[in-house]
Amino acid sequence: MILKIKRKIVLPVLALLVTAAAGYTFYQARVKVDPVALLDETLAKTAEVDSYRYRLEIKVVIGGREQTISQIQGEKAGGDFHIKGSINKVDSEVYQIKDVNYMRDPLTGKWMVSPGSNPLDRRIFAVEIDPLSSFDFTSIQEVGYAGKEKVTGRKTYVLTCRPDVRQGFLATWFKDFHYRLWVDRSDHRIVQAEMHGVFKENPQNTVSMRMEVWDYGADIKFTAPQ
Asked: Residues 21, 23, 29, 31: is their CA dihedral positive or negative?
């Protein structure tokens, strides 16, 4: 009789322990997120990327007035790229294919060809040409995990951080960067990102950037426009 009672007590307890262990294992594998480790992995994968497609918007607020600096869509493969959209309120489209550059004249619509030179100053338009360069951080503070969200149909982890940025144009003119990154839960690559900073000379003026990235590692081929 005592043995039966013990079995009635022990078996449910064992079942509870097994369930708890399984739940903890699931939590460790699927729920718990180490934001520092995930950010390190994500940035390392970003640095390895040679080709991708993107949408980018950069805005500044100067004297309380918001201005859109760039609103473009682009694709990049190695040193070649194609961007199309608005830059400094001018409709722009530019290709760089090997050592030849093509820029569409916004007035005539004709292509201007510049062998051996880039019609865009890479020092100024580096973010538009290669937006992933804005994730090259020299140091990172205050890494945080902000939960899970679905972005363009993809499940993501949301990370936040305050980095120092290596990218020349951003590092020269701005400071106090705050980043928010949406990281794909399956491949740990950046799906979407937002950045906010302030002007070094006048912190009351601000800069913000929003981008979407996809087709990492795609076989992107460029054809010279006619």
From this structure: negative
Q: Write down the pTM of the prediction.
A: 0.82
Query: Domain check: are 154 and 185 in the same one?
Result: yes
Number of domains in the chain: 2
CA distance 196 to 127: 14
pLDDT digits (tens, 9 = 90+) for 41-62: 999 998 899 999 999 999 999 9
Mean pLDDT of all residues in 70-96: 95
Question: Where do the DSSP E strands lie in 166-205?
Answer: 174-184, 190-199
Considering only the C-alpha atoms of the chain, give the largest distance between any 2 of them, rounded to a whole number of Å.
Answer: 98
User: What is the domain range of residue 9?
Assistant: 1-32
| Nearest CA among 117, 74, 25, 115 for reference residue 222 | 74
The answer to whether residues 17 and 63 belong to one domain is no
Give the pLDDT of residue 1.
58
When the pLDDT of each residue in the chain is averaged and rounded to a whole number, the result is 87
DSSP-assigned beta bridge partners for residue 92: 85
| Dist. CA 84–CA 82, nearest whole Å | 7
Residue for token pair 């980018």 = 56
- Which of 34, 8, 53, 44 is CA-nearest to residue 214? 53
**Distance, first Cα to last Cα, the chain:** 93
Contact of 45 with 191, CB cutoff 8 Å? no
Token pair of 201 as six digits: 């000379």
Residue 129, in any domain of the structure: yes
